[in-house]
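Incident log, structure service

09:12 report received: a user says their structure output differs between two submissions of the same chain.
09:20 pulled the input from the user's history:
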Amino acid sequence: MTGYYFDNAAIWNVWVDYVGTTETISVSLSQSADKPSQPQISLSVSIYSVLNQATMYLGLGAGSGSLRSIQQVAAWTFSLNETPQFQLGWSLTPPLINNPDLTLSLTGNALLNTGNTGNNVILTNGLTNELSGVFYNVPFTYYQNGVTLSFGAFFTFKISCVSSTDCADGITFIVSSFLYSFL
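09:34 re-ran on a clean worker, output below:
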């Protein structure tokens, strides 16, 4: 997204909404807890046509390339047809609402931080050439009987620069047809 700089160590809130009936995905972001009335990005896309299957895996990823930063995610929720599927601060066995088999997995250098600064997942920790992610290892069924269900995700992230001259700047919300396909 042009015009936004996320590397200011501020807390950013992101809402990702997909309306199955119109096949529209919208992304809203704000530094306040209030969701903006209009999304910053909205586009038409058939998730089913892209994934070519009725299930999807969800994840969040970050990379640093030749730049350095600390990219962390403090919270993440997901709803399918307005039914909560998971809602968590962070633990490897989060409080799951509809699927007790769902577990959280970390890839690359990602680590779960449950220290005195609060619970979060650190995706990159200030090194160069990092590629890390956090994902759920059980797919969600979003396409049933020829109908694409709506879904919504919300996550909170913070990016802190390691130096003032080079800073990786972004976190990716991932919808994938294969487990581990994004990292």
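09:41 both user submissions now match this output. Likely a transient worker issue. Closing.
09:42 reviewer note: The first strand starts at residue 12 and ends at 19. The CA atoms of residues 66 and 149 lie 39 Å apart.
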